[in-house]
Task: inverse folding
């Protein structure tokens, strides 16, 4: 270790063996008091909250008094990271995830973000089922967890770089002792100091490229909270990972089920989505074909240049090689562009590796901003990552102000001279650098669309227009799908606990592409089952892609193809093999229901858990502007006629209003149906009987919900 490193605090412990996926303790760090200690994990905690997101929510719930609604920058806000009992498995695909949670700067409610990289598994194998960091350090600190020696340290390391691509390289070298594969770093770059949507970079070492690589906990401002606490980095070191590191209850069963699923992926991925070659960029042409690719701030669903930023182009740009963000994952979708020369910003002219882009970054930084240049998208991707900024929020906020600029609602006086027209790549990059550096118009855009609505209203912009086209809900920016023709996905976004993020209820593919949800009842049922099922992955440290992006060849012939039930049964077997708990698919859904309802009550505790907070901007429901309607006039006219309207002689404005009335009512009816299915009342609050049935009717939970019954 470098001689100028100062130890501020140290905690030594005996590294426990993992037992059936658990270490039975969590690590608590108070940065304000330089306190480090262990907390016990009870059997009730494992039974009711499982791990991962469940443990995060439990720790966060108890981090501050029940009678307080803390702000995101209150020292009592806790940043929690957990993997889950199945996390770190090396012989079942997609088992390397971590889940990060805290109170979000954008939403004021708990955010959970699922991320790859090695940190979560290494944290567990170092003896900790979760990490909880609270308080605020006086100056930048590094939290170092040495899982080989059984030591946790708070370190002052002067002279470290600010941005993630440099910081993780330096810290990996500092702590690796010749084995960089044994180190994982969590960091947030300089942009997280100035923006509300700062993200966290979780590293792993790629021996093939001899490079430190990254995945992002992108959503909701976890990186902003991280930097507010003056955390420079979290570092964990662990050596000796093996297929039995989780000490599974039934190693042979785990080996058998892992081999089965791995073989299926190896055989079928080349025939299906080719994730190991193009990753999630295979979605670009599909979304474009089905009019679902966000273009010009979600105004349209198709971009004429989509073929320039689709899978064919990225197959050319991506470096070939193994790209799994955890050991043994045969989906291997974490691709990169090697030796990319930057054209702007503080690293202009330098050659770097770009981790990605994935679909969300392509669609958001590309067509949604009117751009179809893969090199521009790659540069946006790199800078967002190293600055520690969420590409989705950056892109969606940029598209929003671009539309306002083109409408004449904001001008050069507001933007500081930036000509934010759709397609202006130079302006988009400059705006990104301004966000990260806290200057110019970017200083305001970096606080998110919800903030911008108030800021721009004070400067004369029409609030009702911004409400319609500002693509955020609960304060979180939308991810990158046009939902006007998918009622299921409208509900998936509006009813998502954290705000409009597709990882909770990504139904647009099932609804619009496969046609699995034809009836209103099908959509309502899906908005119960799929969020519960997808929550289960975040309880266990798993990636969702092996479940539904590579499917059995006979899946279309099964009774419920949307659910890929063969895989669901595999996961039940996987859970049993590791934990020893004999479960079926319904039990997995029940596990998720407990955590899901608990988090809904947590939202209520923070002031955002009722029906009014499940509203969404009208653009995600239907066309807002005249040209938006006229771009799909045949479609919309036909729908109005099917509803019994005589549209002869009606202006486009009148037709927009008629369609809006119908679609807004549809959305409200859907909410009613989903609330009933979930056991919530008409205001969106879980019923006390339902909480009792789930076994989470704790006195403090009942105290929160009782006034709303």
Result:
């Amino acid at each position: 270790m470098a001689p100028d490193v100062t130890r501020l605090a140290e905690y030594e412990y005996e590294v426990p063996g993992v037992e059936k996926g658990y270490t039975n303790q969590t690590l608590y760090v108070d940065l304000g008091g330089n306190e480090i200690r262990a907390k016990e994990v009870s059997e009730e905690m494992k039974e009711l909250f499982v791990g991962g997101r469940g443990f995060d929510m439990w720790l966060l719930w108890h981090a501050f008094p029940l009678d307080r609604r803390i702000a995101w920058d209150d020292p009592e806000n806790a940043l929690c990271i957990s993997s889950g009992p199945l996390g770190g498995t090396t012989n079942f695909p997609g088992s390397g995830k971590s889940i990060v949670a805290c109170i979000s700067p954008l939403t004021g409610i708990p955010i959970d973000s699922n991320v790859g990289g090695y940190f979560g598994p290494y944290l567990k194998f170092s003896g900790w089922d979760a990490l909880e960091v609270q308080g605020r350090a006086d100056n930048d600190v590094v939290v170092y967890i040495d899982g080989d020696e059984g030591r946790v340290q708070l370190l002052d390391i002067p002279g470290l770089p600010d941005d993630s691509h440099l910081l993780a390289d330096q810290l990996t070298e500092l702590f690796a002792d010749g084995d960089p594969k044994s180190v994982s770093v969590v960091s947030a770059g300089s942009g997280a100091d100035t923006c509300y949507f700062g993200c966290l970079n979780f590293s792993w070492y790629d021996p093939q490229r001899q490079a430190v690589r990254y995945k992002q906990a992108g959503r909701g401002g976890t990186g902003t909270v991280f930097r507010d606490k003056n955390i420079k980095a979290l570092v964990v070191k662990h050596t000796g990972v093996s297929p039995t590191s989780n000490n599974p209850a039934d190693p042979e069963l785990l080996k058998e089920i892992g081999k089965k699923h791995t073989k299926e992926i190896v055989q079928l991925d080349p025939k299906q989505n080719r994730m190991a070659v193009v990753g999630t960029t295979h979605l670009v042409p599909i979304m474009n074909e089905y009019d679902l690719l966000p273009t010009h701030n979600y105004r349209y669903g198709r971009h004429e240049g989509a073929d320039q930023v689709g899978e064919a182009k990225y197959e050319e740009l991506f470096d070939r090689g193994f790209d799994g963000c955890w050991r043994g994952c045969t989906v291997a979708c974490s691709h990169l562009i090697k030796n990319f020369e930057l054209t702007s910003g503080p690293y202009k002219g330098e050659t770097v590796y770009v981790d990605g882009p994935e679909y969300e970054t392509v669609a958001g930084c590309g067509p949604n901003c009117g751009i179809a240049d893969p090199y521009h998208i790659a540069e946006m991707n790199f800078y967002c990552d190293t600055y520690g900024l969420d590409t989705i929020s950056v892109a969606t906020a940029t598209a929003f102000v671009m539309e306002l600029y083109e409408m004449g609602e904001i001008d050069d006086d507001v933007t500081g001279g930036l000509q934010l027209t759709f397609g202006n790549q130079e302006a988009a990059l400059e705006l990104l650098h301004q966000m990260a550096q806290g200057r110019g118009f970017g200083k305001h855009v970096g606080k998110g669309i919800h903030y911008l609505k108030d800021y721009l209203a004070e400067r004369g912009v029409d609030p009702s227009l911004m409400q319609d086209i500002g693509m955020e809900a609960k304060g979180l920016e939308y991810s990158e799908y046009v939902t006007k023709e998918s009622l299921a996905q409208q509900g998936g976004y509006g009813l998502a606990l954290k705000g409009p993020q597709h990882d909770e209820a990504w139904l647009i593919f099932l609804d619009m592409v496969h046609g699995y949800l034809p009836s209103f009842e099908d959509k309502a049922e899906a908005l119960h089952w799929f969020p519960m099922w997808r929550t289960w992955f975040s309880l266990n440290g798993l990636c969702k892609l092996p479940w539904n992006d590579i499917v059995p060849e006979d899946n279309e012939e099964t009774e419920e193809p949307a659910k890929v039930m063969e895989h669901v049964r595999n996961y039940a077997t996987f859970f049993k093999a590791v934990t020893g708990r004999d479960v079926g698919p319904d039990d997995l859904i029940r596990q998720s229901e407990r955590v899901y309802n608990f988090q809904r009550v947590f939202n209520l505790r923070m002031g955002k858990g009722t029906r009014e907070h499940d509203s969404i901007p009208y653009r995600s429901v239907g066309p807002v502007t005249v040209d938006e309607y006229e771009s799909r006039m045949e479609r919309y006219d036909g729908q109005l006629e099917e509803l019994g309207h005589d549209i002869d002689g009606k202006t486009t404005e009148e037709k927009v209003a008629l369609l809006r009335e119908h679609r807004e009512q549809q959305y409200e009816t859907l909410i009613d149906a989903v609330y009933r299915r979930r056991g919530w009342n008409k205001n969106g609050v879980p019923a006390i009987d339902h909480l009792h049935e789930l076994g989470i009717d704790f006195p403090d939970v009942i105290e929160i919900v009782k006034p709303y019954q």
